[in-house]
Amino acid sequence: MNASDTDDDSYNERSALVPAENPTVPSYSPEPDHTPPNSSPAKRPQVTRRAGPPAADGGSGSSDQDVDLEDEELTLKYGAKHVIMLFIPVTLCMIVVVATIKSVSFYSEKTDQRLIYTPFSENTSSVGRRLLNSVLNTIIMISVIVVMTILLVVLYKYRCYRFIQGWLILSSLMLLFWFSFMYLGEVFKTYNLAVDYPTVGVIIWNFGAVGMICIHWKGPLQLQQAYLILISALMALVFIKYLPEWSAWVILGAISVYDLVAVLSPKGPLRMLVETAQERNEPIFPALIYSSAMMWTVGMASPADAQQPGHETDEEAEQSNRWAEPERRQSRSLPEEELEEDRGVKLGLGDFIFYSVLVGKAAATGGDWNTTLACFVAILIGLCLTLLLLAIFKRALPALPISIAFGLVFYFSTDFLVQPFMDNLAAHQFYI
Amino acid sequence: MTAAVFFGCTFIAFGPAIALFLFTIAREPLRVIFLIAGAFFWLVSLLLSSLVWFISVQISNKESAAQQKGLLIFGVVLSVLLQETFRFAYYKLLKKANEGLLALSQEETMPISIRQLAYVSGLGFGFMSGAFSVVNILADSVGPGTVGIHGDSQHYFLSSAFMTMAIILLHMFWGVVFFDACEKQRWWAVAAVVISHLVVSCLTFQNPEYIASLVPTYVILFLMGIWAFYSAGGSLRNLKLCLTCKDKDFLLANHRPR
């Protein structure tokens, strides 16, 4: 968890495999969780927000004008490329989720089984009662997330690193072994394949062990990225299966609002987390952040940089994409680090999960591809806009709200308005 | 048979467009972003036209089939006009964002020219339009069923695929011509694009008679292709140099006007 402070370290990094925990990058996801049954699903909001901050300092507040301009140039310089570096994994995750939903019926079957976080059933007769139940479910879920986030912030503040580390490892163990076992079982059932337990054991053991190593220790970058995409997809599938219909939509909306509040308000838990990490000049837990390129810059920002917490925090917080910023700043303070290579971007896994939940639910309900496509395009455009706003405002902007808002608007409008229109056109074979 | 129909129709409908995407757009991040933004704009225009259609259907007489068909035709015309309006809006937005783009890219010069933007945005419109028209049909073609069992045409899937291909390419050509006409303030050309879009859509009203709708559509496609080629700066000389690989740099940047 300590950032490497010297050039030597970075030199070593270059020759070694990419560590999953990038010492220089503070990407952190306070919420490790992914296993809904046991821990808080909150990871998501935190992840995004977390993204950043520790990195470095964000603030160019006190820096010179020159430095500011330089920063801006470098920031925008990587803009378009980084947008695409995020589009690809987000698209891949959505493709995995949609492909699974459309082929394996297990994940779109109605079930009465629910998570403990959404105890109210939606099988009621009246619309009002159902709405009430979904709102109550949402309130419970969001409060669990808030409590978990605050718990994490407290743990981090009191330096209980081992505890957090253990929590992260436990969650990823659960995802990599248990959920992938279930997934494999359902795929075999769908395609009617008879596979014996020893074979499945070997497959799952290999998959899980390599995944743990790649995610928590070192591994080839692409393998690590693939694992992160897969576990996000698995998590999204679990949410799609176990969250009741209306609750899922209300939760998506509520989480976006929570994201907005937690990132932009001064007393938001994420913001506090980021600031704490910056004060200590430490990277936040990088285990649950998707990283698109190797970070070869050196250790944490110098003390001078650390005095400008606000700026970076924002950027990072937003989606953890902005690694470009922190790296940039660091290279500024370490001129010998003229690493013009791609610094890559990082995105919290929670973003992946909730985007995929939205698109997956669009695919699961209705069986209509137009809605799925519309949500997909809306989410990508939201992501693009978020990055653009980030580059313009240079403040912490949460990643979820814009994309989820667009996604929800397009889901409901395509489902209710566009679908009948297109169906009628297709029936007559009219083209617009 | 169903898998064959599915793959065949998918490749017919999307083949040229995906080839264009892979060879010319996929490697440039900025172009991909503008492609998706173009698709988004088309989607918004569709949303608005569906909204108007939906409202008009709700207040109309749902029993009368003739009235419903009339409303559908009205919906189609409105949708075409809205699509072209959004194309114009996208053009305006891109012009305004030019300076921002300059900052976003790595070079000091414009990272992407207005002509490339025209091509990319046209293709974005085309992709989305084609996808919305045909994806549900393709999904249905995988499953079991008999085409035209109630007396409709048996060539439904195939004609849909060909029509979709034409529409996607047409959108791309319309984009190029439209942006070029807006740049040069030639409003008659803009009107011609709008009218040709209307003509193509109205041709589909005759639809079970595929000869009457597909053949003129392909003729219009061919003509628009030639027009787009010339307005993008192409010429016979360029074409010859390109085909014989004599001119390495036949891209517009180095084209000397004759």
Overview of the molecule:
- The complex is a heterodimer of chains A (432) and B (258).
- Chain A has helices spanning 7-15, 43-50, 65-77, 79-103, 127-157, 161-190, 197-216, 221-242, 245-264, 269-280, 303-306, 309-319, 324-333, 349-364, 369-393, 400-428; strands at 289-291, 346-348.
- Helix content of chain A is 66%, strand content 1%.
- In chain A, strands 1-2 form a two-stranded antiparallel sheet.
- The relative contact order of chain A is 0.21.
- By secondary structure, chain A is mostly helical.
- Chain A is built from 16 helices and 2 strands.
- Chain B has helices at residues 2-25, 29-58, 65-96, 98-104, 114-142, 156-183, 187-203, 210-231, 236-243.
- In chain B, helix 5 (114-142) runs antiparallel to helix 6 (156-183) and helix 6 (156-183) runs parallel beside helix 8.
- Chain B is globular, with a radius of gyration of 20 Å.
- The chains are: A mainly alpha (432), B mainly alpha (258).
Task: Label the structural class of chain B.
Answer: mainly alpha
Low-confidence runs of at least 5 consecutive residues of chain A: 1-63, 295-341
Subunit arrangement of the protein: heterodimer
Termini separation of chain A (Å)? 56 Å
Provide a compact summary of the structure.
The complex is a heterodimer of chains A (432) and B (258). By secondary structure, chain A is mostly helical. Chain A is 66% helix and 1% strand.
